[in-house]
Amino acid sequence: MSDDTNDGGVKQQKLQTPVGIHDLLPDDHEYFTFIKKVVRHRARQAGFKRITTPILENTEVFARGVGDATDIVSKEMYTFEDKGERSLTLKPEGTAGVVRSYIQHGMKEWPQPVQLYYIEPHFRYDKPQKGRYRQFWQIGFEIIGESDPALDAQIIDLANRINEDLGVAHLFSIQLNNIGCPKCRGKYKEDLVNFYIGKERSLCGNCQERLHNNPLRLLDCKSEDCQILAELAPKFDQYRCPECVDFYTKLKGFLDELAIEYVENPKLVRGLDYYTGTVFEFWDKHQGAQNAIGGGGRYDGLIELMGGPPTPGVGYASGIERIILNMKRENVTVPSKDAIHIFVAQLGDDAKRKCLPLMNKLRDRGIKTVGALGKASMKAQLRLADKFNVPYTLIMGITEVREGVIIIRDMAKGQQHTVSMDEVVEKVAALIGEENLDNYSPGEAIY
User: Fold this and answer.
1) What predicted TM-score, i.e. pTM, was given to this entire model?
2) Residue-wise burial string across 359-373, b where 16 or more C-beta atoms lie within 10 A, e elsewhere
């Protein structure tokens, strides 16, 4: 952050965004708008309903749901006390809040399974990297109320279809694993810890902590020495109970039926304590987990852990900023809804009075219109119209007001002609083309 000196000679810091937090400028919002449209379309097709949970939750929601031993809870949460000395946290992930809402609002009485999706900001105090921010947006899907490998296959298929719609699916491989149920995972954890005992010096600092409080995370550490040990460690497929083997086998069969390619990855465990059974991630085919675009899995014990009745669930979440980075990497262009059709230039108060209602009429007709309503000269206004890159400019001065007409100027050809004020809206609409107009009715769902 650089310093400025004010008129009194006192240095002031330039105000900038906090570290790891960034502005979403208009160009990126075009990608955001497109991604949200694709997600909403696919979600509605599959019967998902949108939910928005608060940005702030009681800290216990995440401590109990995500797990005290996870990096998120132990190191990355933005937690503070409010004026009532209650501990609150900016939500670091979406599932725990959705599950809290499911329990609080009695969704177990709804038709099951309950299918919900969200598009929301989240917060983690993490080391900022390319595509990784301390405030970041995620899309997420949750299916709560049924345990069936066909639902796991459907949510993987939904995520893959969205990636295809966004032009990035070919960049990623689907990594797949089944980390078992509590019944078969206990013995595996015990043997895994025993394998690592005596090898602590070869582990990174994080994994030395994980060894006793979250041993499964030892398997997906990115440290080179930890990866070597993970290759030698016991493999979970030798520990799965018959029920978990059957569930995993059926899931792979459903994915095969959907013609979805996947890579079985016995080291994939994901970083949250609530996962059981199915886990999956979309990994970059060249950079691996370092550029994962999203992931998810089954959390059959989470609702009971958070105070509800035993209820199965499966979910998926993906980072929007990471999606945008990969769309740009592939030169994927998105439709722009922000291009201006018409610039209105005027001289004099009488012309300004005429132009204000005219601009509303143009906008109501679906013609995106901007006007320079200051005191700039006509020459300066036309230069501004060039900067807006509009195809046409409407020009009104003293003579046009007196005669009840307005000039339509073709900015590309430099040609212009005069029309009456009564005809200008439809004349302009014809020039822009009905297919390009931005029309909607107030009663329509426009967001």
Assistant:
1) 0.86
2) beebeebebbbbbbe
